[in-house]
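Q: My labmate handed me this sequence with no annotations at all. I'd like to see what the chain might look like in three dimensions before we decide whether it's worth expressing. Could you predict it?
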Amino acid sequence: MISPPGFSGAVFGEAGDGDPRHQQEARILFTGALGLPDHWAWANQVHGSNILTVHAPGGAGDGDGLLTDTSDLALVVATADCVPVIIEGERTTAVVHAGWRGMAAGVVEAGVARMTAAGDRPLRAAIGPSIGPCCYEVGPEVVAVMEEHTSTTSWGTQSVDLWSAAEAQLGDVDTVWRADVCTFTDHRFRSHRRDRTDLRQVAVAWLRKD
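A: Here is what I predict for the chain of 210 residues:
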């Protein structure tokens, strides 16, 4: 697990944690290590920009982000190259799943907006491991919608810098922490592009009880 420094309830999982979405034993061990119940809230991720407000564990419907003001409720997204982003406010927390389609649709910005609309102020955000600009080779259709964040792979082809795109969408959030770890090159993490795997690591956000 990666715990970004200075965050109250934020963890990015690794391949060694198993796939807690579908493996009950892995979920029990993962949440137990965090001191949380093994029932969490999740969304049916659809690569869009919908942020769901939740107050109880279970499936919340179609969306690519979750926000809560309920203490000790684990919010979870699953990734294997897409970007997980955790946003902490004064009274709420949110977790976002962002691939290039979601990023183009403004999903990270939508997470900030949902927190603000809930009457809270985003204080800090953590951008977790995902495929890096070194390895995220893309075609012209992606470049056309992500033009401001294009880059070059280590082998000289066009790529997209999802980390910088996520940070840009966070706007005026006070503190932004970035893992800057590429899931394609770092075998501690699942990578769909590298292995065509259906397994995922999870990002978990929660509000600690006072």
